[in-house]
Amino acid sequence: MIVTKTGDEESDMAVASKKPLRKKSPAKSAPTKADLKRADLAGPGIGTYEDLEKVLPTAYRSLLDVRETQRAIFAVKDYIEEHLCKELHLMMVTVPLIVDVESGVNDMLDRDGSRTPIQFHISNDHDKHPIDAQVVQAATKWKRVALKQLGMAHGEGLCTDMRAVRKDYFLDHDHSCYVDQWDWERVISAEERSLDFLTRIVRKIWKVIKGAEQFAMREFPKLRDPRWPELPDELTFLHAEDILDRFPDLPRKQRETAILQDYPAVFIYGIGWPLADGYPHEMRAADYDDWVTETRSKTGRPMHGLNGDILVWNPVTERRHELTSMGIRVNAESLKQQLEMSHQLHLLKTPYHQGIVKHELPLSIGGGIGQSRTLMLLLRKAHLGEVSVTVWPKILKEMCAKKHIFVLE
Prior knowledge:
Distance between the termini: 75 Å
CATH superfamily: Bira Bifunctional Protein, Domain 2
Shape: globular
């Protein structure tokens, strides 16, 4: 006869034999749309090398060899610097690699504290006159101070060949701890703090990037390849709210990927202000770009933000590809409002922030154009490491080598 034990009897027997019953783990619920959107704000990068291996192209061969690539890097770099300065009335200036912590000019990148700079102590004069310094993450705020220091007048500006370190990135095919940018800044008037003026400046920048592509293909004919379509002559301008309207259920990166299927090169306005779903398109620091000022769409719809990003579809990697982040900078009013929204009003005590509040620093527009990102795109490369020299983990280098992607060391 088969005897079926009740749950209580089975439990009693387990206790008697000192063998505890196995407890079932609670089933993990699938992430909600809100969970995915929050996770998408955490920062750049793919996240795991298992995912990266799936992303890297499988039939890749560089169109230029290593030495041709080096020649192309410097030729295109010179072209962009010359024409960017010409189009925006800028001059090339030197830029710091390290800054004083107390100055408040280092770029914190996001307003959630997730990406922090490398900091170190300089025990100058036996610690009688020490300095606490940081390696820059970008020259974003320093440039505005430099405009005043260099006596730039309205319509004049500066451009830098900036180098930085961002230690908190996940290192993938288009994110590196070593950052190189054309960081630029230009003095504007109060009347120029508008979407129309921002749009005019963005079109000038796109003219330079498109021109650099044509220059590269003339100088290095191998880059003309029917597999890789050329960049469009014009950008498509969209507000982050418009893109959310089209793809309300998708996280930010997926929305960008989706819109680039329709428009291969876009400028997205309004990055930082919470959108209709309650989340900003992307986290943006509170003390340089103005993302709080109310604007109006062409149809009269109220929106926010005097900033944005240029993104393109990269046919080599078959992924979204950000080239530049830029915007009209905060004035005294928008700075205070953004710091309050970000719970960072304590920053108002630093010299940089005081310079804005007291109207000592000029109104400006500025941005950073990723050098390696742009060269990677124009030279038809699959990885940043093909156009810049930095550190990569062994797992990534081995993965790339198997796919004929040879990163520089």
